[in-house]
């Protein structure tokens, strides 16, 4: 599996390509303390996957196969120590596959881009996981930029992860605003080269068609 990692920082853009993408962090780790049920926990950078590190107070975009995200979340049941909000549209391909021990995960649904922006504005959770729904932008292509600004604003006080199994025009717009962008998957496949046998067969068919034309 190939992956491409893009880190967008004020200093510029760093790109890494290859089969083993190691997580790279430029921002210093700034711990944040939360008090839940009398106990104090600190949310710092989280290694969601060997190649994916979620930074505190940053917006991440992850484009990867669905089983990859599900497996990563199920390996981190300790996320329930924090306030985690999962945001999706009318239908989620992730929630039904999560471990049953995920009992404290809060879920909100957004059926329009305006509802999504409202949820982002009202959220006070330490981790936001948004399942990208391209249907929200079918009749509102220009809203991708405004949603991006809302996600960056939410990342000022939360860790934000926007997930999609594939890229699309609205998501590509958002990658220009995110702090970190992770791509996983098979790269574009080269077009198959025709064999000598297939070339001879094509030439014979072409000659035959020419003769029939006369």
- Average of pLDDT: 75
CATH class: Alpha Beta
Question: What form results from the Cα inertia axes?
Answer: globular
Strand order of the largest sheet: 2-1-12-7-11-10-8-9
Order of helices and strands: EEEEEEEHEEHEHEHEH
Radius of gyration: 22 Å
Give unreliable regions as ranges: 6-42, 186-199, 204-214
How many helices? The count is 5
The total strand number stands at: 12
Question: Explain this structure to me?
Answer:
- The chain has helices at 66-74, 113-122, 143-154, 169-175, 196-213, and strands at residues 2-9, 12-18, 32-36, 39-43, 46-49, 52-54, 59-63, 84-88, 106-109, 127-131, 159-164, 180-185.
- The protein has one domain (2-213): Rossmann fold, CATH 3.40.50.300.
- It is of the alpha/beta class.
- The protein is built from 5 helices and 12 strands.
- 26% of the residues lie in helices and 29% in strands.
- The longest helix is centred in the C-terminal third of the chain and has 18 residues, at 196-213.
- Helix 2 (113-122) runs parallel beside helix 3 (143-154) and helix 3 (143-154) crosses helix 4.
């Amino acid at each position: 599996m190939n992956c491409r990692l893009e880190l967008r920082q004020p200093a510029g853009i760093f790109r890494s390509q290859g089969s083993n993408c190691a997580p790279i962090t430029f921002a210093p780790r700034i711990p944040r303390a939360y008090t839940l049920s009398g106990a104090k926990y600190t949310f710092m950078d989280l290694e969601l996957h060997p190649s994916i590190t979620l930074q505190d107070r940053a917006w991440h975009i992850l484009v990867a196969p669905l089983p990859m995200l599900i497996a990563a979340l199920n390996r981190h049941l300790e996320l329930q120590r924090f306030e985690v909000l999962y945001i999706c549209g009318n239908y989620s391909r992730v929630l039904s596959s999560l471990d049953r021990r995920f009992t404290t995960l809060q879920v909100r649904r957004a059926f329009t881009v305006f509802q999504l922006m409202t949820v982002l504005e009202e959220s006070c959770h330490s981790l936001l996981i948004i399942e990208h729904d391209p249907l929200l932008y079918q009749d509102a292509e220009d809203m991708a930029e405004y949603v991006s600004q809302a996600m960056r604003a939410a990342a000022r006080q939360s860790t934000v992860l926007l997930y999609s199994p594939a890229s699309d025009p609205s998501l590509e717009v958002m990658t220009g605003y995110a702090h970190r962008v992770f791509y996983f998957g098979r790269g574009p496949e080269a077009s198959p080269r025709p064999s000598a046998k297939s070339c001879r067969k094509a030439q014979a068919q072409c000659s035959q068609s020419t003769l029939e034309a006369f």
